[in-house]
Amino acid sequence: MAAERLDRFMARANAAYYAARDPFADFTTSPEISQVFGEVLGLWAAVMWAGLGRPASVLLIEVGPGRGTLMADALRAIRQAMPEFAAALQVHLIETSPRLRAAQAATVPDAVWHDSLDDVPAGPFLLLANEFLDALPIRQFVRRAGGWTERWVVDGAFEERPVDPAAPAPALGQGGAAAPAEGSILEICEPAQAFVRSVAARLAHHAGAALILDYGPGHSGYGDSLQALAGGRPADPLAAPGTADLTAHVDFAGLAAAAEAAGAVAHGPVPQGLFLARLGLFQRANRLARHQPLARAAAIMEAARRLGEPDMMGRLFKVLSLTRPDGPAPPGFEA
Ligand code: SAH
Questions:
Q1: Deepest in the core among 88, 183, 221, 318, taking most CB within 10 A?
Q2: Distance between CA 130 and CA 132 in Å, rounded?
Q3: 31 pocket-lining for ligand 1 (C-beta < 6 Å)
Q4: Residue 318, strand partner residues
Q5: Where are the alpha helices (DSSP H) in 178-250?
Q6: Atom of ligand 1 nearest to the CA of 67
Q7: What is the pLDDT of residues 213-272, one digit of tens each?
Q8: Which residues have a Cβ under 8 Å from the Cβ of 198 and sit 6 or more positions away?
Q9: CB count, 10 Å around CB of 325?
Q10: Residue 177's pLDDT band (boundaries 50, 70, 90)?
Q11: What is the pTM of this model?
């Protein structure tokens, strides 16, 4: 088998995986756990639309929409809470998997689909991305006595190769003055950096805001976070490309720095539990649970706790917002 740099291996493996399988058989995500997740994000977008001065036409963009559940829940909450926003928005979904596009067409029938953010028309926008960046391909570098090596995949195993001495030395996204110890692993997700720069470029020309939710640390650091899930269980990421979902931690601090270097303002990252609690996760869940049979009410509250509790998804998952310097302050990021 040919040798492949890790990011190219991961891109190929995930493209095959998303094209051929129902990823939700292998893992679950916040919108699939509780309808309140999408509802709260829809209300976040509604507040931001009002803060932008209620543009008469606005793009509601979602990147990597999965089954379309988040968007369907968001639109329902928006129609109820702010029908003027519902009337002003057009939904644009960015999705590369034909299989998931078909699923999204059933849940969000009036959407327009694109392969990339660069294809979305110009104009004021609100952008949501949940668990999108963790699926993008990473490169991994290993600190050795003689300098950095890079991980390639050869016959289902890692092989370290010297890096081009003429290329800029790999570095943490943010901070990291201390010299890394021998064996330290540094991860770089170039498409994630390109994505936030593209959001920042859009913000330079249009009113708008982005909300990015995913899992990862609050500060940039060394470590191997590549993981594979197949059938709901951890698997060997290199063994059978296309049969497992490959993800890695999102370097939120590094992405915030990249967005600010490109002219945007970054808010957060804040832990998902704190963000959702500030936006009324538990109040909405409570309202939904009222008048339900006991078992159903308990399930609704348990789902909200899964999203918000620190020892569940509340702390590992983070939320980052990008706005213009003159934009409204996004709710949920108060100091
Ligand atoms: N946001 C959804 C789905 C998360 S799974 C949820 O929370 O349930 C990741 C999503 O990103 C899938 O829809 C997948 O098909 C999509 N995706 C992965 N790589 C992509 C890429 N390079 N461009 C666009 N979409 C991509």
A1: 318
A2: 5
A3: yes
A4: 214, 271
A5: 190-205
A6: 8
A7: 999 999 999 999 999 999 889 999 999 999 999 999 999 999 999 999 999 999 999 999
A8: 117, 118
A9: 10
A10: low
A11: 0.97
DSSP state of 225: -
- The amino acid at residue 205 is H
Q: Which two tokens stand for residue 108?
A: 């969000």
- Ligand 1 centroid–CA 94 distance in Å is 8
Q: Is 130 in the pocket of ligand 1 (CB under 6 A)?
A: yes
Q: What are phi and psi of 314, to 5 degrees?
A: -70, -30
Listed residue (117, 129, 308, 334) closest to 214, CA to CA: 129
| DSSP secondary structure string for all residues of 136-185 | S--EEEEEETTEEEEEEEETTEEEEEEPPTTSPPP--SS---SPPPTT-E
Pocket test for ligand 1, best of 26, 97, 276 (most atoms within 8 A of CB): 97
Decide: 132 in ligand 1 pocket, CB within 6 A.
yes
Q: Is the CB of 64 under 6 A from ligand 1?
A: yes
Cβ(18) – ligand 1 distance below 6 Å: yes
pLDDT digits 0-9 by tens, 48-89: 999 999 999 999 999 999 999 999 999 999 999 999 999 999
- Ligand 1 nearest atom to the CA of residue 136, by list position: 19
| Position 306 pLDDT exceeds 80 | yes
Q: How far is Cα 199 from Cα 262, in angstroms, rounded to an integer?
A: 9
